[in-house]
Write a structure and sequence with these properties.
Blueprint (H helix, E strand, L loop, with lengths): L1 E5 L3 H12 L5 E6 L4 H10 L2 H4 L4 E6 L10 E4 L15 H18 L4 E4 L4 H12 L6 E3 L2 H16 L6 E2 L2 E3 L6 E3 L5 E2 L2 E2 L6 H12 L1 H9 L5 H15 L4 E10 L5 E12 L2 E5 L6 H20 L8
Parallel strand pairs: 1-2, 1-4, 2-3, 4-5, 5-6
Antiparallel strand pairs: 7-10, 8-9, 10-11, 12-13, 13-14
The chain binds adenosine-5-diphosphoribose.
Length: 313
């Protein structure tokens, strides 16, 4: 197996590091536009192999896509990150051009690759990659829901004083501060509804904290986060490579599911060797359905911005 990660910045390098440690492939290729960055990070990472006991080769490349040829999975993290006070949506002007070019370069050398989009605004970048490339919809997956759900679990576990691993908690909808929908009514701790353990006020607080989880980190660090986004990307790659058929909330193309069409947005899907293989139909109540429709409207408005840029979708 061969995996390429485009963007050797904070998120891309962390993702590649996680992939190597998990030995998900014989070779990981890291690509960046900045001269020497990918080569340097790949070399540094590979020098941990004898200490961390993994056998994955890690190779770096400055914009030479021939090195990525025949990749099974490609993770796209290239682009600019958020600065404090910025929304993910404000990155669209710069990142759309980058994601478009990178996707084209990747497909020239790996026409059968499954492509994971991490660059923000992630829902719109996923839509752009799908529409621009014309590849089968199951092969383009936006990573946002896994990260948001992991943050949801982290906030819940702090409140409940429990292990995040004993929680089942999912965030669907868009990957934006105002568009994501942490499904608190569906969240459980060892099968017990969280709503029966936490007060309504605490539930509200956890949902609110989750929604601004990324912005909170950006304010603290001065740029957007990388440990959790990188780990989330690797988790998605793992379910594909090992054909685990895990269910994750991911940004995928909807064609009538959840009442929406011609949009990429977060819903629970089965992830396996063919990319996203099936959309699961969660039993949403009227309030949750209304939130999903509102979220889809916001994502669709953002997709509309693409037509004003020099990219086609
Ligand atoms: N091709 C390849 N790499 C590129 C290109 C390009 N056309 N344009 C930019 N890059 C590289 C940059 O050189 C940089 O090394 O993408 C990398 C981005 O890394 P960081 O600036 O560290 O940003 P990071 O925190 O990793 O975030 C990347 O993921 O979570 C999202 O919002 C975040 O969109 C952002 C992306």
């Amino acid at each position: 197996m061969k995996i390429t990660v485009v963007g050797a910045g904070a998120v891309g390098a962390t993702c590649a590091d996680n992939i190597a440690r998990k030995e998900l492939a014989e070779e990981v290729v890291l690509v960046d536009i900045k001269e020497g960055l990918a080569e340097g990070k790949a070399l540094d990472m590979f020098q941990t192999a004898s200490m961390l006991e993994f056998d994955t080769r890690i190779v770096g490349s400055t914009n030479d896509y021939s090195k990525t040829a025949n990749s099974d999975v490609v993770v796209i993290t290239s682009g600019v990150p958020r600065k404090p006070g910025m929304t993910r949506e404000e990155l669209i002007g710069i990142n759309a051009g980058i994601v478009k070019t990178v996707t084209e370069n990747i497909l020239k050398h790996s026409p059968n690759a499954i492509i994971i989009i991490i660059s923000n605004p992630m829902d719109t970048m996923t839509y752009l990659a799908l529409k621009n490339s014309g590849v089968a919809k199951n092969r383009i997956i936006g990573m946002g829901g896994i990260l948001d759900s992991a943050r949801f679990k982290a906030y819940l576990s702090a409140e409940l004083q429990c292990s995040p691993n004993d929680l089942h908690a999912v965030v669907i909808g868009g990957h934006g501060d105002t568009t994501m929908i942490p499904l608190i009514r569906h969240a459980t701790l060892n099968g017990k509804p969280v709503s029966s353990i936490l007060s309504p006020e605490k539930q509200k607080q956890v949902v609110a904290d989750t929604m601004v989880g990324g912005a909170t980190l950006t304010k603290l660090i001065g740029t957007s986060a990388w440990y959790a986004p990188g780990a989330a990307g690797a988790m998605l790659v793992e379910s594909i490579i090992r054909d685990q058929k895990k269910v994750f909330p991911c940004c995928v193309y909807l064609d009538g599911e959840y009442g929406e069409k011609d949009i990429c947005i977060g819903v629970p899907v089965v992830i396996g060797r063919n990319g996203w293989e099936k959309i699961l139909d969660y039993d949403l109540n009227e309030e949750e359905k209304a939130l999903f429709a509102k979220s889809a409207e916001a994502v669709r408005n953002m997709n509309g911005v693409l037509s004003t840029l020099d990219v086609s979708a």
